[in-house]
Structures are given as structure tokens and as C-alpha cells.
Amino acid sequence: MNPVIELILNRKSVRAYDAREISEQVKDGILKATLRAPTAGNMMLYSIIQVQDQSIKDTLARTCDNQPFIAKAPLVLLFLADYQRWFDYYIVSGVKELCERNRVPMRKPEEGDLFLACCDALIAAQTAVIAAESVGIGSCYIGDIMENYEVHKELFHLPRYVFPICLVCFGYPTQGQKERELTRRFDEKFIVFENQYKRLDRASFEEMYRDLHERTFKDRETLEGARNVGQLNYLRKFSADFSKEMSRSVRAILAAWKED
Ligand SMILES: Cc1cc2nc3c(=O)[nH]c(=O)nc-3n(C[C@H](O)[C@H](O)[C@H](O)COP(=O)(O)O)c2cc1C
After folding, report:
1. Band of residue 205 on the pLDDT scale cut at 50, 70, 90
2. CA distances from residue 169 to 91, 118, 134, 162, 186 in whole angstroms, order as listed
3. Is any atom of ligand 1 closer than 6 Å to the C-beta of 140?
């Protein structure tokens, strides 16, 4: 099989790391590859912060929904959707004066710009994940970095037009992680459509979730009061406190982004 596809098919999230450090040379290789990621208009609408300070890693382990493995990761990269750099450059370049000359108001970064910057940052992050995987380094995304905006803003000195979209932990996997089974995915027919979006009906959902239901519920009728995967997911994820905090925090980021 094509070795790149084989690498991708065998990738899994790694949450326990060997004591082995990641050398500067290996890290540089990963970062070089990361910066070659496709980027909207070749603008590189993202920044990356390497979290080296142990006390910051310790804080993140708490503020990102209490995930202690973050503090133990040899390499932690924070990916930021970043319109601040371009906007600062517009100001430095005299765009304000240009707009005055043209008698038009100067536009500020808006929602579309934010989403585009998020695309850039996430594509860069996934490029780092695959580059790391190719040299035997495992990784795990931390979506909870979108929580506790006020703490992270102060911790990393984030300006207004910078959105912390994901954190990624990297490290050589422990033997246990190497041996762990791959997670399963839903069948392609429920995810990949032809030409048009297809909403699923009850029968399709039953088929889609059958395997996961059987593995999760085994011989039990209920789990944590839930009767199926939909109910369990709603309780554990969608209506969990971390999800509510994430929405609160993202609203705060958006409010700062859109302030007049
Ligand atoms: C956007 C995003 C956020 C994630 N956040 C977390 C997280 O906070 N903690 C964690 O342990 N895993 C996190 N993960 C990893 C997923 O749980 C993992 O990718 C999923 O369970 C599938 O497992 P696999 O990557 O091993 O195939 C995240 C993944 C993504 C893409």
C-alpha cells in the first residue's frame, strides 16, 4: 500500500508519552512541514505557540477540562487562528489613510475572516500531526483550549483578533499506546454523499450506530441512565459542563472580536 495512506490509516490519538524527548532537529522538521500546509491566499492566517514552560503546561492540564496528560507531553503546540498580524500590517501599511483617501470606512476582521483563519490553523495543525506521525511521534488534539478564554488570553497574551482554535500534544507513544486498537469509524455511506446532502432517517441511524451500540451497551439495557448511543452522547458530551463552558468562552471571544 502507498506508505502515506498506510501511515494515515494506522494513526491514532496518543495520550501517554515515553520519557524520550523530541530532539530540536526532529521538532524543526515537523515545524518546517507544518508551515508548508495550504493556507488561504497564502496569507498564513495562523500562529503557533510552542508551550515549553512546565507551569503553563500544568495550567493547561487544568483549564482544558482537567486532562493531566497535557502536562506530561514533551511537545505542546497551540494553534491560533490569527487575523491580528494582517490587521496590524494593514495599519502599519497605511490602509487607514488609503481608506480615508478613497472615502470608504476601513473594514475590520469579521466572522468570515475568523472562519478562514480557523481553517488555516486547523490545516496547519493536521499537517503537524501527520508530519509527527511519519517520524514515530504520536499526538492528540485538545479541543478544550476553546474553554476559559479569559485565562488563556492572559496566559498567552492573546490580542483581540487571535482565536485559540486547538492545542496539540506530541510525544513518542508508550508501548501501551502502540498496542491500543484503532478506534472505529462510521461507514463511509453515512458520511460521504454524492452531489447533495442526505439527511438520515431512523432506519439509517439504527444501522449507522448498531456496531457502536452493541460494543457500548453489551448486555446492559441502560448506561448512566441512557438507553442508546444518542442519549449517552448527549449526556456525556453535548450537554456536559465542558460543552457549555466552551460555548460561553467562544461567545466571549466572538464578542471581543466584534467589539466596535
Ligand atoms: C477537534 C478535536 C478535539 C479533540 N479534543 C480532545 C481532547 O480534548 N481530549 C482528548 O483526549 N482527545 C481529544 N481529541 C481526540 C479525539 O478524541 C480522537 O481523535 C477520537 O476519539 C478518535 O480517536 P483516534 O484519533 O484515536 O482515531 C480531539 C480531536 C479533535 C479532532
Report:
1. very high
2. 35, 18, 16, 20, 25
3. yes
